[in-house]
Request: fold
Amino acid sequence: MERENRFWRVILLALPLAVFAAFVIWPLADSFHYSFTNWNGFNPDFDYVGFDNFLKIHSDKLFLNAAINTALWIVAAIVVPTGLGLGLALLIDSRIPGGSVFKSIFYLPICLSAVVVGQIWVWIYQPDWGLLNTVVEAVSGESFNYAWLAKPDSALWSVILAWSWQQTGLSMVIFLAGLTTIPEELLEVCEIEGARALQRIRLVVIPLLTPATVVVIALNVINSLKGFDILYTMTGGGPFNSSDTLAMHMYNESFKKYLMGYGSAISVVLFLIALTIVRLYFRQLRKVDELHG
Amino acid sequence: MADAACLPAPARRFNPWPAVIFIALAVLALLFLAPTAGVLLSSIKTTRDIALGQLWTIPSELFWGNYAEVLGNPAVHRYFLNTALVTAPATVASIALGSLAGYVFAKLPFRGSNLLFLVIVSGMFFPPQVILIPLFRLFNAMDLIDTLYPIIVIHTAMGIPICTLLMRNFFATVPNALREAAILEGANEWQVLTRVALPLSLPALAVLATLQFTWIWNDFLWPLIFTQSDEKRTIMLGIVNLQGQYSVAWGVQGSLSLIASLPTLVVFLFFQRYFIKGMTMGAVKG
Reply:
């Protein structure tokens, strides 16, 4: 029996493991390898340059700029879609007529591609006829032509807002799934004991939502690291690299300047950041599991 | 509770909260719909109207010229065909491979299988940039740059984590007694998987089909890296590409975006339940 099981394990796992190892695990390891080379993307040959690429990271002002922007994006990802998603979930969960319609509306942006979302928001920020400036003009009564995406001060935040618009729906459904696990009786008891709605939410609902919150924050942070497509279509990291992120910087160094060795070094850093977050996430999840069973 | 229902209804205090919440949600929903509505509106307006600042108003008459322009453009047909040629095989292949692996992790666990499972699943969490350069070099050496094959292969491989996770979780709910009974009847594992476990897992397969289809259809990065000629572009790359040709023809851009999003919008509208289930299952059980 056990011999037969072993046979089937090998047969069934062979293909998925081979594909995963060849096209995910091996390239990941190979990224480390190339980060010690000066490969230029065309030549089949390259030289080993030791830690030069990592030393270059240290002095690369654009890397520092991209790292700061990535950090800002991560902070925004923890706060904005998480907060909005929680708020929407609590409102929808209060058994309002049309709740499922509202849910679909807030969730809809998820099925759009980042390219399309980027284009939509380019039009919102369009200086002459964009929605944002049109509203500002209507409210203030004065002509307003601020170019949100073309100014270094506002480009990054404008992209982050667009990204948050798409990300909020995902946070919301995960919170809604979390809310269904809170026993109805518990909330009724609170109500009978005289707890007001806001007290109930603050003291009972939000603490019990901790597992969902951990998942939401982790997903948002991970997705902020992956947020490349929307940035590419909205600003391309500009103007003057003001909205560059690590993913964008890595792409530019590798596929615009063909510094594939240096690009690999940046991707190694990106991997280490993602690994740290994933480990924090798994550890937090285990803690939550122990607490909530 | 039944007793309370029999009593004459007391004069209930007016509770304003449901109304307030409803209005708040309605306002937020309008704000959330505005961006999408903008694309919809742009697609039925002339460029002149948009340039005059008329994009965000309800049009008095519909202008279909933008759709005619997009649908009559042979490049758009090619983009669509290429996207379908990538999405269909990669969706099927990733789900098939995920089912194979998920079955082993759920029904034939072995020493170290949990660790292996965790390694595979964590593949979901890493930005694709971390494997970009070696894959570019690999497919370059194989002379496959500017073909659709690398994109199909990568999406298959990158889909294995989520497919394995969801199939393993679903197979775990298929009773072991069913498998044992089938094996006593002389069936082998392959027959248990294909004739017992998979037919029982249609909901999970539907979840994965909607997720994978949407993600692969919408993808931008891999076609950006692996295709160069216009002949091989997929639709999302095509949108960016045509922004040059239609640089101020905003209405054409809008209708193109809408047409490009139609397949995923249809999937979303009809299979929303599966979609949401997949997102939460993948996330919460991760």
